[in-house]
Amino acid sequence: MSLPQHPALARALALSRELLAAAEQSNVGNIALLDAERLRLLKLLRRERHDLSAGDKLALQEVADLNDRTIGLMEHHRRIKQRAMETVAVGRRAVAAYATTRLQR
């Protein structure tokens, strides 16, 4: 595989790999910063409107693939958190329902 020729694209690809690693580790704090920087670089690349080499096209496809995987992982983590919050809510309702009852002897 040939490497991207455009430096902004090469950096965007590296950031995409970092984003996936952050998503795999549930490191949500870094994701927004990394994504913002990657978006800035991709917009710069689009503004320049130069002809893309074969390596650049492959790199763009890899950026898209990594982005899809990262989004999938983040969605998975969101669903896990949502289930945990629902479980806590059920527990709180149960405690509230039984809090007024006392043991009858």
Helix content: over 70%
How many helices?
Answer: 3
Mean pLDDT: 88
Largest sheet data: none
Could you characterize the architecture of this molecule?
- This protein has 105 residues and is mainly α.
- The protein has helices at residues 7-24, 28-48, 54-99.
- The longest helix has 46 residues, at 54-99.
- The model has no long low-confidence stretch (mean pLDDT 88).
Brief account:
With about 100 residues, the chain is mainly α. Helix content is about 80%, strand content about 0%. The protein has one domain.
Can you give keywords for this protein?
rod-shaped; 3 helices; 0% strand
Topology, please?
Blueprint: H1 7-24, H2 28-48, H3 54-99
